[in-house]
Amino acid sequence: MVHSAYDSFELLSKCPTKIDAIESYGSKLLVGCSDGALRIYGPDSSVTDRTDHHGQSQELRKETYTLERTVTGFSKKTLLAMEVLSSRELLLSLSESIAFHRVPNLETLAVITKAKGANAYSWDDRRGFLCFARQKRVCIFRHDGGRGFVEVKEFGVPDTVKSMSWCGENICLGIRKEYVILNATNGALTEVFPSGRMAPPLVVSLPSGELLLGKENIGVFVDQNGKLLQAERICWSEAPSVIVIQKPYAIGMLPRRVEIRSLRVPYQLIQTIVLQNVRHLTQSNNAVIVGLDNSVYGLFPVPLGAQIVQLTASGNFEEALALCKLLPPEDSNLRAAKEGSIHLRYAHYLFENGSYEEAMEQFLASQVDITYVLSLYPSIVLPKTSMVSEAEKPIDVSSDALHLSRVSSGMSDDMESSPPQSIEFDEHAAIESKKMSHNTLMALIKFLQKKRYSVIEKATSEGTEEVVLGAVGDNFGPYDSSRFKKSSKGRGNISVNSSAREMAAILDTTLLQALLLTGQSSAALELLKGANYCDLKICEEIIQKWNLHAALLELYKCNSMHREALELLHKLVEESKTQAELSSKFKPESIIDYLKPLCGTDPMLVLEFSMLVLESCPTQTIELFLSGNIPADLVNSYLKQNAPNMQGRYLELMLAMNDNGISGNLQNEMVQIYLSEVLDWYTDLISQQKWDEKAFSPTRKKLLSALESISGYNPEALLKRLPADALYEERAILLGKMNQHELALSLYVHKLHVLELALSYCDRVYESAADKVSAKSSANIYLTLMQIYLNPRKTIKNFEKRITNIVTQSTSVPKASSAVKARGGRGAKKIAAIEGAEDMRVNLASTDSGRSDGDADEFSEEGDSMIMLDEVLDLLSKRWDRINGAQALRLLPKETKLQNLLPFLGPLMRKSGEAYRNLSVVKSLRQSENLQVKDELYKQRKNVVKITSDSMCSLCNKKIGTSVFAVYPNGKTLVHFVCFRDSQSMKAVVKGSPLRRR
Q1: CB within 8 A of 489, min separation 6: which ones?
Q2: For the residues of 217-281, what is the DSSP string, one character each?
Q3: What angle do CA 569, 573, 577 make, to 5 degrees?
Q4: What is the C-alpha separation between 824 and 822, in angstroms, rounded?
Q5: Residue 471 in this model has a pLDDT that exceeds 60
Q6: What is the dihedral sign for C-alpha 822, 827, 831, 834?
Q7: pLDDT tens across 550-602, in order?
Q8: Which end of the chain has fewer beta carbons closer than 10 Å to its terminal beta carbon, N or C?
Q9: Pair 448, 507: CB distance under 8 Å
Q10: Over the stretch 623-649, which tens digit does the pLDDT of each residue have?
């Protein structure tokens, strides 16, 4: 026996005759005797606890009952069964037939004569349906609400019915050899399973609407359609003849005793009440009535609280918890306290017996504080908070817990206070101890993970509320310096005055230790990567002890200790160069990946640690600066101070990645760096007497490319740094940036002697001005090159002097194109006429250097031996479409043969003729268009409007008559001219005047 669920009490003894049937009504006992009389017994005490509207007590009492009334001749034959129908205040009795009496005065209401010889019945109280079995027939009657019953159906069955019960809309029948389901609508039979050979069939209806069917000494659960519900069975010690269901127990009547079993799997035996010659078993409203031959016993339920205490003390915790669910709703606080106490004691019992995961489930259900569970793990280090000391105190889970016996449920002395014993264990014992430790920690991990979501959510919400209230000026009072302090990702350095966050810190710190102690380093790493409240000092010490570098990095990161994390990461990167196991995990790119999120919050820290990987990963580092939107000037100045050798590389890569993102200051800085390197290279070669103007180092190529492609630098400042007798190509590019085209071209022609560069220079100048307003003046750059070819001595003579003047001047020089004014003449006019009208608009004064009268004299003095006429003719033949023909012819010497000008004049004349023809065609087309418009105008003026005597004004609806009229553009709408004028004036007034508001 597990515990006492019922107390047995003898209500009635020494009945004068044998008892055939027994039932209760309120506090009364209705006893049907073998002499056909119905004897009514009541309690001796006259005090009533609960009474109905008739003044009758509603419950049986644990008292001796005495005879109050005898109804003789109640039944003519043996009374087989009785049942009080409380909802209808009727007494149903089965003897010779089925009779209904009104209670409590026992007036006969109805007798169903067709039930004569019936041996089994079932009453459906919800619908008022009665079914009974007579021989091989099943009849269904319905109570009409008054004094009578109406027959509904009658069906035939294969054999005599021994037991029956309503199951929803159907009826379950236990016939001689099997159970069947009878469809109460059409009489269809559905077989369930055989009923057994030894014991008669037994059908018991459960409160849930399901059925319990007896098969020998086994009870099988089926649904209303006869399908098995579960594999488990109730196994009685013998086949019961009657079963009464009174949650949470099933009471079975056996020949010499009454068995009480739990309705929970595994349906264990709860209690056995030994009574000899048990004949009847029926359920009352508050007890179970047991009838013997001449006596009646009452089985009164033991109060649930007392049962729970018994079960807990005996270690049957699951049954105790099941009984807690049955406590009334008004005792919810008591119920929660009892459940918590039982869960807690059950957890200790399971923990001590090695069922660690099951123990943690019970700790979880008990809602006990986390620190209480952690007290079972002395090896776990907890943060120094105010909660730990409080949690170590005994927990008063309920007032009832003080009375519960702590049999095998308290914490063991070994876990709490026993000093470690120095006992020599063998190898097997050591392995078992290690296994137990691992299992306990695994159970703890699952417990903490299940608790973590709610704890972290509460801590986060409190932190959010604190920030919001702090932002609006609310003050919670001074912080207590003894409180736990937490610094973590997303929370900053906050002095925590929150029990929720203290609990979160304890949980996360413990969880991390447990994960590491069980070898789950990857899970520990994932914990640190997410939002957590791990204690920095404790976790740092443990992680360093286990030598888990990645976890330590995440710990620093989540606590915003970025400098410490980067220092550690740099150390690991350096060690990875010599240790193969670290090389795959920690690379210079790891530092860059760590720095990316810090660009917006701490750019100086990013710059400081990016210097460590700038040389090994220059491209990725520059991408870091660009993607992080770190100001380029800040990066440049930092590099200039700390890594000057990488400054040029940074500017170079930045310019390659983002042409428009680099400022003029940085462009000038980059060009200055290139120039310094080139000058150092030039000085070194000069000292070795190996300088060659046509030698190009990689840096000089970069310098030339930068000078040509970018425009943000200061050419005057760079020009001052160039040597006077070298680096002519750089000087030419700088002069070109200063619009000193003549000097630049002179360098290409007379210093570098590379005519291709001079022609390319002219092309660049011409094409760069193609989209500008002064695009026509760009053609004069070719005329400047012609002058240099045709007047070389003058160019060389003035070259050095002009270069010196430009270098000494700090301000920019005006364009050379305004220095000389070209001279006009008749020949120029003729050629200009050939070129076309558009070429006449070219301002001859816009050339870099037009030839004056003095130039002609100089030509005659110098002679034609130095003139580069072949180069001039080649230039004219290649760029004839970009050169002003009139000005070019004026610059040529008089001795130039016209035949040599055919490559220049031929295409020029063809272009001019083609332009003339095209313009003529355009002129003709425009004239034709003009004529078409005039013709259309004449046609429109020929429209005729006919005014008749019936013509009406569209405005005033009066006849036009002989009045002056107007016609709308559609040619059909006629109006008086006066009406038209008035309407126009009204429109003008409405349009020009603002509306007045009423």
Answers
A1: 531, 557, 558, 559, 560
A2: TEEEEE-TTS-B--S--EE-SS--SEEEEETTEEEEEETTEEEEEESSTT--EEEEEE-TT--EE
A3: 165
A4: 7
A5: no
A6: positive
A7: 899 999 999 889 999 999 988 888 888 787 777 778 888 888 898 989 888 88
A8: C
A9: yes
A10: 888 787 788 888 888 888 888 877 777
Name residues whose C-beta falls within 8 Å of residue 516's C-beta, 6 or more positions apart in sequence: 524, 542, 543, 546, 548, 551
- How far is the C-alpha of 72 from the C-alpha of 16, rounded, in Å? 13
SS3 737: helix
Residue 15 token pair: 């009945």
Count other C-beta atoms under 10 Å from residue 518's C-beta.
Answer: 18
Q: Is the pLDDT of residue 840 over 50?
A: no
- In whole angstroms, give the CA distance from residue 284 to residue 59: 8
pLDDT of amino acid 427: 54
Q: Are strands 249-254 and 242-246 parallel, antiparallel or unpaired?
A: antiparallel
Positive or negative torsion for Cα 630, 631, 634, 636:
positive
Nearest to 701 by CA among 678, 724, 672, 722: 678
* Distance (Å, whole) CA 874 – CA 789: 11
Residue 133 exposed, middle or buried by CB count within 10 Å (0-12, 13-18, 19+): buried
- Say if residue 248 is preceded by a cis peptide, omega within 30 of 0: yes
* pLDDT of res. 975: 93
Q: Count CA atoms closer than 13 A to 352's CA, side-chain side.
A: 18
Q: Would you say 46 and 300 are in contact if contact means Cβ atoms under 8 Å apart?
A: no
CA atoms within 13 A on the CB side of 319: 28
Percent of the chain with pLDDT over 90: 29
Q: What is the mean pLDDT of the chain?
A: 79
370-394 pLDDT, tens digit per residue, is: 999 998 888 889 888 766 544 444 4
Radius of gyration of the chain (CA): 57
- How many residues are listed for the chain in this entry? 998
Residue 929 pLDDT exceeds 60: yes
- Pairwise CA distance, residues 181 & 204, whole Å: 13
Q: How many CB atoms lie within 10 A of CB 411?
A: 15
- Long-range residue pairs from 303-307, CB within 8 A, at least 24 positions apart, any chain: 305/334, 305/338, 305/400, 307/3, 307/4, 307/5
Split at pLDDT 50, 70, 90, the class of 694 is: confident
CA 143 to CA 151: how far, in whole Å?
9
Residue type, position 701, single letter: K
Q: Token pair for residue 196?
A: 């057994």
**What sign for the dihedral angle of Cα 199, 205, 207, 212?**
positive
Matching residue, tokens 């101890």? 433
Residue 678, pLDDT score:
86
Can you tell me the distance from the alpha carbon of 522 to that of 157, in angstroms, rounded to the nearest whole number? 69
User: Regarding predicted confidence, which is higher, 296 or 819?
Assistant: 296
Asked if residue 698 lies in contact with residue 679, where contact means CB atoms within 8 angstroms, the answer is no
- In tens, the pLDDT along 435-457 reads 558 889 999 999 999 999 999 98
Three state DSSP letters for 430-457: HHHHHHHHHHHHHHHHHHHHHHHHHHHH
Give the distance, in angstroms, between the CA of residue 207 and the centroid of all CA atoms in the same chain. 46
CA distances from 844 to 690, 738, 927 (A): 46, 21, 34
Average pLDDT over residues 131-146: 90
- Tally Cβ neighbours within 10 Å of residue 676: 14
How is residue 747 annotated by DSSP?
A: I
Dist. CA 507–CA 445, nearest whole Å: 10
Looking at residue 817, what DSSP letter applies? G
Distance CA 769, CA 765 (A): 6
On the question of a cis peptide bond just before residue 644, with omega within 30 degrees of 0, the verdict is no
Contact 41, 65 (CB under 8 A): yes
Using an 8 Å Cβ cutoff, are 259 and 237 in contact? yes
Number of Cβ within a 10 Å radius of residue 473: 6
